[in-house]
Amino acid sequence: APAVVPQPQPANPEPVIIAPPAGDNTGNTAGTDTNGNGTVSLTPTVAEEIATSVTVVASVTPPATATATPTTTPTATPVTFGVELRVEGTSGRISILYSTPLETERLDAVRLPWSLSLRAERGAQLSVFVDNASELGDVSCTILVENVVIVTVVDLLPFGEVECAAIVP
Asked: pTM score, two decimals?
């Protein structure tokens, strides 16, 4: 709130003369008409109450303005994980269909063991489908992330198929 500071008064104030409006002889004045001419002379204490002038001193602090500071967000390199798709077994004739975020490919007449190593981000979908085209032998598929087995499927039957699918955790 603004502070109100009264103006200093002189040490010996002069009497203040207040003249009522013309034709106002109602006697609603403080003081005495000593001259008989309608002019009232007030004592300094009453005059101070009526004529005190005050100076309002206000200190205004402007609101702080927000200044946008440009920031640069560093481009983070995606976190990737070591992934291995692995097919093993004793079958002599197999076909592999695999899918990674980068490619889907079919391989025929694959010799076992077979593996594919790559890097993949969290949430990447991976799959390996193995078709045993032989009467003999077994096949298995495994998906590893950071050398931890996520899924393994084994088929011991001739002409069997196995499929492994996983999402990089």
From this structure: 0.56
